[in-house]
Amino acid sequence: MTSPTNLTLAASLHERVHRHLFPGDGLEAAAILLCSRTPGPRIRLLAQDAVLVPHAACTQRHADYLVWPGMAIEDAIDRAEVNDLSLVLIHSHPGGLFGFSQHDDQSDHLTMPGLFQALGPLHGTAVMTPDGAILARLYQADLTQIPIDVVSVPGDDLKWWWADGQFAKRPMAFTSHARDEMARLTACVIGVSGTGSVVAEQIARLGFGQVILIDFDKLEERNLNRILNSTLQGAKSEQAKVEAFAEAVVRYRGDGVAIPLNASISSREAVLLASQADVIFSCVDTLDARHIADLIAASFLIPLFDVGVSIPTRKAGESVAIADVCGRIDYVQPGGATLQDRGVYDPVSLRAEYLRRAAPNAHLEEIQAGYLKGVAEQAPAVISLNMRAASACVIEFIARAYPFRHSSNAEHARTEFSLAANDEDFTEEGSFKKLPNPNLGRGAMEPLLGLPSLRAPKAKDKQ
Length: 463
Prior knowledge:
Layout: E1 6-9, H1 11-21, E2 30-37, E3 44-52, E4 60-61, E5 66-67, H2 70-82, E6 86-92, H3 102-118, E7 123-128, E8 134-139, E9 145-147, E10 150-154, E11 158-162, H4 176-182, E12 186-190, H5 194-206, E13 210-214, H6 232-236, H7 241-253, E14 258-261, H8 268-274, E15 279-282, H9 287-299, E16 304-316, E17 319-322, E18 326-332, H10 347-358, E19 372-373, H11 383-401, E20 414-418, E21 423-427, H12 459-462
Parallel strand pairs: 1-3, 1-10, 6-7, 12-13, 12-15, 13-14, 15-16, 16-19
Antiparallel strand pairs: 2-3, 2-6, 4-5, 7-8, 8-9, 10-11, 16-17, 16-18, 18-20, 20-21
């Protein structure tokens, strides 16, 4: 399956552009999207910002016709030159036409050559209808068109507008109609172990067109009791977890769905592959991996679902007892509060984790026992807990792509459950203090994610 070409706007930017394009007077208005790009092979444009063309600066504004001032485009060109950005010129269709008019075609052929003279390749135009739907197209330097198959806006809800008009009415959750749309999307699962294998099993069977699987680890006999699609034979041959899972997907979905990568998410190869996804599920057990997932989601404007479980213990006389059985699911939307903003990790905890790996003798007092904190258990029987958390994680995606809740999805930025207390708590997006994010919409700019360790190798290094 070929991944669709895509234009993505964070919900906050989409809302700002929508307000400007529809000021309430029923006349066309215009803006210019400043877009970074993802690394190939998939074409994805990521809207970083917008130049809003002042209404009064337009020499003509009608219900079906607009004349822009050249200065607005020159301003956008100046801003785009700095980081080699693509421009998408967008205007409103107050009458609701989800298509390009003959006047739009004529205008593009007059405007596009000037963009290619001033900037590099790949620029485009778009129209927005009153309901916020966007239709976009790209041009190459010879004015050959590249259709944008889908425009996505990941916010409290996940929205896609398809150029072919399919799914104009949002599918109902849990239906074959929703499955048909998911068949056009690519999901990435980072960490295909205890929780991750259960997440991956669900999304593969839900019908995602492609499922990217990223994990550096190999199967061992001690984790056969909690990793779906693992086998004794695979453990004995030290098969990569992602390869074992991909083989299983082939048996019930066929070839070309599972895309396994046996590598650390901290590697350049893994970051490049994850950048191609429409949604990311982070099912890792280290803070460093969550940090990278956070950076990928922000840099490439990909919605992120992060899941974790924990079984804290307490002293009970001379023995140890279960204090709680917990799970956490965070939904991170582009431009929203990141996992770092939410306190999932911070620079201090990242450094401490690094020291435990690099100098374990310096942290002998810290017991790292995996699932059961304080108990050295090599093969914990936690598949039921993992399934509970993994199911909640995938349901969170479904609720945002195909809303069914009685309350707003904004109230469910974080879900935490305690099985010991039989309790479930929700935290709304606005409760987290959001810091400026310099990586937002960074795209393919080097070094990837702003990390020197992920810089593209020089030509001599490739030999």
